[in-house]
Every structure is written in C-alpha cells, then in structure tokens.
Design brief:
Two copies of one chain form a homodimer. By secondary structure, the first copy, chain A, is α/β, with parallel strands linked by helices. The first copy, chain A, is built from six helices and six strands; from the N terminus they run βαβββαββαααα. Chain A is globular.
C-alpha cells in the first residue's frame, strides 16, 4: 500500500459508539486541515433516530478548493470503531478507499482489503487510557492516507487536548503513526 | 416577545472566537434535539481561511422530518459572541429571527430587535468560570426559542460536561434560562 497525496475532495467517515470520541476526532481532523494545513474543511454530524441507540458518526470533507456539499457522498476512508458502524458504512466506500477497523471490536469486515488495527488496545498501551482510542485512530488514518500532514494533526490534537493530557494524547497519536508505518511496510 | 414551537426546519448559527466553545455548544444543541427530544438534527462546521483568524462558527439544523440540506440557509436564530461574528452573520437572519449577542463583546448590532445579554458576565457570576459562557448562551437561546425542550438541553449539557463540572454547567444553564425569562417578561 502506498500513501496518497490529495489535491482534491477527500471524504472521511469516523464511526463508532457514543463515548468513543468520534465527533471530537472529526473536529480535530477538520481543524488540522483548515487551521494548520491551510485547506478547506467541513465537519458534519447527522443525527437521526439512530443517535438514541448510542451510535456516533462524524463526517469530514477536506479539499483544496471550495466545498459545495458538506456531507460524505462516497467515502475515501472509513474508520469503524464498532461492528455496527462497520456494517452500516463499510459498503459506502470508494473502490480504492481505506477501511480501517478496530480489530478487537469489529469481527466481520466486508472486504479483504480492510485494515485491522487494535486501536483501543494501542490507546491503552501507549497512553494508559483507552479513551485516547480516537486519537490513535487519527494517527492511523493520517499515517496511512496523508489526508493532512502529521505536523498539522499533532498541532490540532495538542490544541484540543484538555490541560494536563497533552503528553498522553501525543503518545496515542505517535502509536497510531507507528501502526500506520508498520502496515505500510508490510505491504511494500 | 412570545416563544415559538417549531414543528418544521429551524436553523441556528452559533458564532464567536476560537476558545469560546461555540462548536461544543452546537454539538450539545444537536444532541439535545436528536437524543433527548427525538427530532432530527445536523451539526456542521465549515472551515475556510477565516479559521486561521480565530473565528469559530457552528451551524445546527433541527427538524421533525428529514433534513435535506445540513447547512444554514437563512438563520432563524444567531448567537453572536464577538463583534466579528455579529458583523459577518447578523444580516443573514429571517425577518422574525432571533439575534442574541453578548452585550459586553458586541457593541454594534444591525437591528433594534437584537437581544443583548451579558452572557460571559452571567457565566462568571453563576458558575465562577467565564468558560461556561457557551452554556449560558444555550440557556438563553433555548429559553427564548423553545427550539428544544429545557429538559433536553439540561440532559445534553450534563452528558457533555467533563467530570466534576456538572454543577457548574447546570448553574450556567439555569442563568441562561433566567435571563430568557426576564427578557420574555419585559416584552409582554
């Protein structure tokens, strides 16, 4: 697998359960793109009846130019942190899209191209807190796709980290980058 | 001024400076509508070059039915927490729309119908922390517009409050409700 450089519209879904911080992850990714990489970004949550079931989904669209339509049409990348999220959105992915799943939470994947990463376990191991799984997921996503620069996502994570948790969140992000590097190497 | 009950699409902009928590306020409002009031809601941030200047804006669309277009077209309500936000979005408001401004931050308003509330001061007085201004703003907005129920916004604020800050955020929300009640009375 080779990384890609995006000059055009790039659509990302981050999906999981309430409490996994996927909405915050979406905000951080959009801020990385817009504030630190100088691109345009839209970040949307659409809530419907499913919000009451505890599902949580953020969408981010990043582009060099103007963004006409703020929602994902067909995703370039999906991060699925629950089986429900993978079942629901796993098929709405471009042919060469990235499907990244937390392998301890998602047993069934719709494609052999799915990239299985123990995201929540890496969060626990790197930062001591499973709650940083959303930041590990951002590290894996950015490490594999280059949709924003690593420097930009580092700054965006740091700016949104609650006081006193900066080091923990940095460690989680690095763990995500390292996992992405290992996956990229394996594929060369 | 009488409060309104909305059965149809209702569009809200929350705008201010980075760090005032307007994006989080948008998420809380959307969650109040979708999770606790059983409506549909979309919450969007659109970032462009202005994000680098420190401006921050969240848009929330709430409806009983499906939401086709997730962004605000012409706002039913604007909360402006900075002069820049008021200047930029103050004119994009429906005729009977609500323009709510933090009166200590916004000196010039585009309409005599603007509702001036010392939002940040109320935050400081009620909770001891100016950082709860976003929650006071939600209290004022919901108290005046009834776009979601008071019970729903209470639950949504509580669910998003960091551990240990629940009481502080509840106090801020109550201060917003009280301000709205005073304003409504004055107009009767």
């Amino acid at each position: 697998m080779t990384t890609k450089t995006h000059t055009d519209r790039y659509e990302i879904r981050l999906a999981g359960e309430g409490g996994q911080g996927m909405i915050l992850a979406g905000i951080i990714l959009a801020e990385a793109a817009a504030i630190y990489d100088g691109k345009n970004a839209c970040q949307t949550q659409v809530y419907g009846p499913e919000a009451r079931g505890g599902a949580s989904k953020a969408e981010v669209v990043i582009a060099q130019g103007e963004i006409d339509h703020p929602e994902v049409i067909t995703a370039d990348a999906l991060v699925a942190m629950s089986q429900e999220a993978c079942d629901k959105y796993g098929s709405n992915l471009k042919k060469d899209g990235f499907l990244i799943v937390d392998e301890e939470k998602v047993g069934r994947v719709p494609s052999s191209r799915a990239i299985k990463v123990p995201i929540t376990r890496l969060a626990q191991e790197s930062s001591g807190k499973a709650i940083t799984a959303n930041v590990v997921a951002l590290g894996v996503l950015v490490g594999l796709t280059d949709v924003v620069s690593r420097a930009a996502i580092e700054k965006a994570v740091s700016a949104r980290a609650p006081k006193g948790t900066e080091a923990m969140n940095k460690a989680a992000l690095e763990a995500g980058f390292t996992a992405a590097d290992l996956i990229s190497k394996k594929d060369e």
